[in-house]
């Protein structure tokens, strides 16, 4: 970096003795590092002004508000001639956004706790502060530690063979024939038992562990659909969830191709389920990605339709094959006539532009019949079966719905 650009980045400011640097409740835009001098941080308790700290060279202040964009929670005054370096909030935030997820979490927790403590502090006076702070610190670190523990366990879960893929049938609603399966991940944790993905998929996404795990699921599901087709003697479509993080991975397409080649799966038997969030993220150029998957022969389902932005323009702009109506609509259909109308309209719209529709979360026959009446041809849900291990899935597909 040249000297000129360095000078632009480092902005210094001088304050005379007694000069206010910022006041409580000011809007925050920057933090400060003290180069020389002394700064007093104080808060107004209503009946008295309480000095929280006296800071000297090398110390930072004002960072809390600069980080979370809230107003100043204390007043800063220069006690003598003081020189400060300004740190604009973008500098702080870009670092926080780039930081390791557990650190980010920790920071968020601590910021929230700090705000909470301060408001209690004002209400209760100074006596309560130390115990509140101590408790908050213990809770904040427990949260972060639990998460770090789970993360390291998840890192080892693949090699310890604790991950499993279960299969939930996707059924033709007229006649209950199993036409496909959705691959759903399970973690058989040594202490916590079998865990559903909502307990760990978020963590896997934050830490990018979803990339190797997702690849493993894809490969397993492809191998298993080949075996299912052999055992059942008919075509079966395997749906695999692909998260935004996997989607953003430049190597995804080449890995997909490798998996198809190595497992010998007919790519026409493979359906990739993505959510609207993936389509909205233009950085990942979703259109090109989807077209490449389709060139390889796989098809694309838009998952959880109705829960996100549900922009109808996606349906027209992207070459999607299947729309999956989120289970919250299916559940609400019985009690709420508006939901019923929405599901009917989604079906009409999807069929109008040539998409298949899968209704998720069908739990009773009333829902199945209602969906059938509105022309929805496919569904999945506990009415037919939850996700089950491979052997059970094959047995069920054979006995309930031999084609
Ligand atoms: P999803 O893709 O919407 O999967 C359907 C979820 O609905 C599954 O939950 C399934 O067990 C549940 N479900 C199915 N039928 C019914 C029903 O009739 N009633 C109710 N109440 N629930 C039903 P599960 O297996 O816990 O998965 C949760 C989510 O985790 C999935 O939602 C998906 O977003 C994610 N997930 C699962 N496996 C993977 C994976 O291999 N990769 C990625 N990226 N995400 C996965
Ligand atoms: Ca899904
Ligand atoms: Ca879904």
Features:
403 residues; Jelly Rolls; alpha/beta; four-stranded antiparallel sheet; binds calcium ion; 23% strand; TIM Barrel; binds ligand C2E; 46% helix; disordered N terminus; 3 domains
List the helices and strands and how they pair.
Elements: H1 3-9, E1 11-15, E2 20-22, E3 30-36, E4 39-44, E5 49-55, E6 60-61, H2 63-68, E7 75-78, E8 82-88, H3 89-98, H4 101-124, H5 129-157, E9 163-172, E10 177-189, E11 193-195, H6 201-206, H7 210-232, E12 237-241, H8 244-247, H9 252-263, E13 270-274, H10 276-280, H11 286-296, E14 299-305, H12 312-317, E15 322-325, H13 327-332, H14 337-352, E16 356-359, H15 365-373, E17 378-379, H16 390-399
Parallel strand pairs: 10-12, 12-13, 13-14, 14-15, 15-16, 16-17
Antiparallel strand pairs: 1-8, 2-7, 3-6, 3-8, 4-5, 4-7, 9-10, 9-17, 10-11
Bound molecules: ligand C2E and calcium ion (2 copies).
């Amino acid at each position: 970096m040249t000297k000129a650009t360095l000078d632009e980045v480092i902005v210094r400011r001088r304050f005379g003795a007694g000069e206010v640097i910022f006041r409580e409740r000011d809007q925050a835009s920057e933090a400060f590092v003290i180069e020389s001098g002394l700064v007093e941080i104080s808060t107004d308790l209503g009946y008295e002004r309480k000095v929280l700290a006296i800071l000297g060279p090398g110390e930072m202040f004002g960072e809390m508000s600069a980080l979370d964009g809230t107003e100043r929670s204390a007043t800063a005054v220069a006690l003598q001639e003081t020189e400060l370096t300004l740190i604009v909030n973008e500098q702080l935030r870009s670092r926080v956004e780039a930081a390791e997820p557990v650190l980010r979490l920790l920071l968020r927790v601590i910021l929230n706790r700090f705000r909470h403590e301060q408001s209690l502090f004002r209400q209760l006076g100074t006596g309560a502060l130390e115990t509140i702070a101590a408790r908050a610190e213990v809770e904040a670190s427990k949260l972060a530690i639990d998460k770090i523990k789970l993360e390291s366990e998840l890192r080892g879960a693949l090699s310890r063979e604790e991950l499993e893929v279960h299969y939930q049938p996707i059924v033709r609603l007229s006649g209950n024939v199993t036409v496909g399966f959705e691959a759903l991940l399970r973690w058989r944790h040594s202490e916590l038992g079998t865990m559903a993905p909502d307990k760990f998929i978020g963590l896997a996404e934050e830490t990018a562990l979803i990339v190797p795990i997702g690849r493993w699921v894809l490969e397993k599901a492809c191998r298993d659909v080949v075996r299912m087709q052999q055992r059942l003697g008919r075509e079966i479509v395997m749906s695999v969830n692909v998260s935004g993080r996997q989607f953003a991975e430049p190597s995804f397409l080449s890995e997909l191709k490798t998996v198809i080649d190595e497992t010998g799966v007919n790519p026409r038997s493979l359906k990739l389920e993505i959510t609207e969030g993936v389509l909205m993220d233009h950085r990942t150029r979703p259109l090109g990605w989807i077209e490449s998957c389709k060139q390889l022969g796989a098809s694309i389902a838009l998952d959880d339709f109705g829960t996100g932005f549900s922009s109808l323009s996606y349906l027209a702009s992207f070459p999607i094959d299947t729309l999956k109506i989120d289970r919250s609509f299916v559940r609400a259909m019985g009690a709420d006539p508006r939901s019923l109308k929405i599901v009917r309209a989604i079906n009409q719209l999807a069929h109008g532009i040539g998409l298949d529709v899968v209704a998720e979360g069908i739990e009773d026959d009333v829902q199945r019949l209602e969906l059938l009446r509105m022309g929805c041809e496919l569904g999945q849900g506990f009415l037919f079966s939850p996700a089950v291990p491979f052997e059970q899935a094959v047995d069920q597909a054979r006995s309930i719905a031999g084609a």
